[in-house]
Amino acid sequence: MKTNKILLFAALGLFMAGCYNDFETPAPAKVWSDEDMQELGLTQISIKEVKDKFISSDYFGSLQNTGSNNSWADTKTLKLGGPISPVEAEFADNPGNLKFWEEAAGYYIKGKVISTDSQGNVYKSLYIDDGTAAIELKLCGTLYTTFDVNLDTFESMWVYVKLKDFYLGNYRMMLSLGDAPSNALNTGLRDRYYANSNFESPDLWCNLQNPTYNRVLPGGPCKLDETNVKVVDASNYRQLGQDDYGRLIRFQGVKIRYANITYQDEQRDADGNIVRDADGNIVWGPEQTAPAFGSGTNINPFPNWIVTDSGTPVFGTWFYWAYSRETTSLYGAVLMVLNDSASGSADPGVYSIRTSGYARFAMQPIPRHGTVGNVLGIYGIYATYLSQYAQYQITVNRIEDLDFPKESLLSQEWIDKNTPPASYAPPVKDGSGEYDD
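RE: above sequence
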């Protein structure tokens, strides 16, 4: 047993060293620079230029209707370099969906780290920003040990990305850089098509034994500034646009909004204290119905958990940031608004805070309806095209970035009182891959 533990820690040490150390000849961490890129014969290009290439008339023309990903026929990707390789053969059977930007093989991008996977809400992704735009890199492994950022002090580091053989893909109008297109079965045994994929191993993007795969390279320290962290409040939220997808945004003065649910608050006395009966039990006030939100088939409870792998999405009212109980982990969504008159998710000033059930803070309680606070997170969209069903989503890196008054957080008694029994039993896949009712 002792020997096994020693081997385990040794293996972990090698993994954590990542790009920095060769097993046989350990060396100090390499800090990459502009000069290193020049010696490799590479030319810098901005992240915005890379993203704009996808939507240029030479390639796909738009983000809309290019990221449905329901089949290979509507899954589109731009390979940075060329020519076609055997792994792309199946994908290339759909003419026009795989395009090549061969000149990109001679380019690199350089950006500051704006994400961290240290608390598990960001997973196998690294977001970088160069002041012109931001983009997700779909990698693997534990990333924050190599690519760190301090979101309290805004101390960050540069990252260099050699673009050759990356795939620029669109998923629900969010562009990312990753490995080749892929198809996989989800937990409901349904096909899921991706215009690009995560690298399966660190060796495919970071391998000192084979420098060909040194694609994502740590640079020197830097500071995030106003070009990397955009401040959005009630005065300017309508200015957010497509160029801001993937960027780190500080939302100030947002209001938590419940919708399409019924709940009861505690009764309070004139001093604001919770009223309890002689036995110490809370005295509950009258039922309240949260404002209606959404239209058509898009009327869902907020806050919620969501199950998507069963086909038609299933939602349940849920008053934690996400669902994580026993062996089940589900995304959670909490609405926040800068626009009180908004009536649907596609309206400007409406955002869904999305939290993974695997996040360390998944089962922390959310604030009360109407609470005002600040949120620092990565701005995104989930849509095939801009319609009433589009959703603007915020991914937070840490629980500390959800800045709401502590007294606004729901008590366990409140949650127990208001959570519907059905919400504790989301649809669970049985042995055949189907979902129970």
